[in-house]
Structure formats: structure tokens, C-alpha cells
Design goal:
Rossmann fold, 254 residues, alpha/beta
């Protein structure tokens, strides 16, 4: 199935898609923030675009442009950071949704590849349900839906979760080696914080990444490879598809 990206369509194309029954839009959310000395600042944006594209190939859905700036204050202190306030990002999502409804969109999937966007997503979901009740909105939690599948792939390779990491570790590095190999500098890759990940997450949220690691890496990127990155992305797209179809069934019964 050809991916219908809004940026590549004419307005008659978009109108024809809606008339043909393609009334779902995927809105990907990324971030512009440090991902260690070996990955580009746009890592989450590239990942969001890829996941949205792979999901769209499985569904009748159009894909909106990635919102490339998220809520990333936990990475303050690292050069290159761009970050929005929670209210700002939520407002952008709601504004985009409002315009989509104007031209016939009936369902919206907001797909985030950055965990720090969670509060903005929750606020946006509340506002969307209040202000656009006719729009069906699905905002999946990546780890809840995809975490088990990703960990299973890692386990087959003998990789523990603390190697995959929470940020710029094996998981994200493998995906970028597949998606953007020319932008990955493995010569600069080195293990970051590889201790208990539950404790690491608590520290990251409470005190920021700088309190956890000087390089910005939480995990071990040295173990990454492109083929596993391809598997990670495909598994996540499959998980999102299954969860979306289940959500549609449940929504129709509500």
C-alpha cells in the first residue's frame, strides 16, 4: 500500500482520499534533543516518521508531518535542545486536529516516539474529547503496547534490558543504524548508565538526564546492529496495528 503523506498530496488528493473512505490520520510526534555523542538530535523524529509510515502501510490512513519538537526539559544542559511547554505541545495537537476535522477526518492516531511527551498527550486527549467529541482519538502508550515485543527480540539476541536502555542505548541505536546509518557515529558510541532501569527512570524524571549520565546515554549502544533495528521497528508497527484494530472494535461497542 502506498503511504499517503499529507506533505506530498495536493488538496484534491486529500479530498479524494477522504471521499474514498480514508478518514484516519496518523500524527507522529518526535523531539529534538540529545541522544548521546553518537546519534543525531532528531533521533525520535526519525523514529516517529518511520513508525507512522509503517503503520500507515498496514492501515487505510494518511500520515501528517512529524511534529519535530516535543517536551524534553529532562535533557536540559545538553547542546542542541529544543523543547516546548506541555500546554504548548497539547495546543499544537488540538489545533491540528481541529483543522483535520474541517476537511473530513474522523479518526486521529497520535503516535509519539518520545516518552517525555506523555503529559502533553494526556492534556491533548482531554481537550480533544471535550472540544471535538465527534473525532475518535487514539493515543497509544508505546511501552505498554510494544515493550514486550521489543524485549522478546532483544532476548533472542541475549541482550538484557539495561543494554537496550531508556535513551540512546542499543534499541534506539539499532533503529537509527537501520533508518539513518549515515548519521550514526559508532566510533563515538560508548556504554552509558547501565544500572537498574527502574531507578534510572525515576532519577531521569526527578532530576534530569545530567544527574544520571554525563554523555546522555542510558544503555549500551555498542551492541546495536541495523538488522535488529529493522526487526524492532517492524514489531512495533505490528503491535500498533493489532492494538488499533482492537481499539476500533472496543470503541464500536461503547
Amino acid at each position: 500500500m502506498n503511504i499517503q503523506r499529507l506533505t506530498e498530496l495536493t488538496w484534491p488528493d486529500a479530498a479524494q482520499a477522504v471521499a474514498a473512505g480514508v478518514t484516519t490520520v496518523i500524527l507522529p510526534l518526535g523531539a529534538t534533543e540529545q541522544h548521546g555523542p553518537h546519534l543525531p538530535l532528531g533521533t525520535d523524529t526519525y523514529r516517529a516518521a518511520a513508525l507512522a509510515g509503517q503503520l500507515a502501510e498496514r492501515l487505510p490512513a494518511m500520515v501528517a508531518p512529524v511534529i519535530p519538537i516535543g517536551c524534553s526539559d529532562e535533557h536540559s544542559g545538553f547542546a542542541g535542545l529544543l523543547s516546548l511547554e506541555v500546554e504548548t505541545l497539547a495546543a499544537v495537537i488540538v489545533d491540528c486536529a481541529r483543522r483535520m476535522v474541517d476537511w473530513g477526518v474522523q479518526r486521529l492516531i497520535v503516535l509519539s516516539a518520545h516518552g517525555g511527551n506523555g503529559s502533553a498527550l494526556a492534556l491533548a486527549e482531554t481537550r480533544l474529547r471535550q472540544e471535538l467529541p465527534a473525532l475518535a482519538v487514539w493515543i497509544p502508550d508505546p511501552m505498554t503496547i510494544c515493550g514486550e515485543a521489543v524485549l522478546a527480540i532483544a532476548a533472542e539476541a541475549g541482550l538484557p534490558f539495561n543494554a537496550l536502555g531508556l535513551h540512546a542505548g542499543e534499541w534506539e541505536t539499532s533503529e537509527l543504524l537501520y533508518l539513518r546509518p549515515e548519521q550514526v557515529c559508532m566510533k563515538q558510541a560508548a556504554p552509558g548508565h547501565t544500572g537498574d532501569m527502574d531507578a534510572a527512570l525515576a532519577t531521569l524524571i526527578a532530576k534530569g538526564t545530567r544527574a544520571l549520565t554525563a554523555t546522555g546515554v542510558v544503555g549500551d549502544p555498542c551492541l546495536a546492529n541495523a538488522s535488529r533495528g529493522e526487526c524492532y521497528l517492524a514489531a512495533q508497527a505490528a503491535c500498533y496495528e493489532a492494538a488499533w484494530r482492537q481499539w476500533l472494535i472496543q470503541s464500536s461497542k461503547a
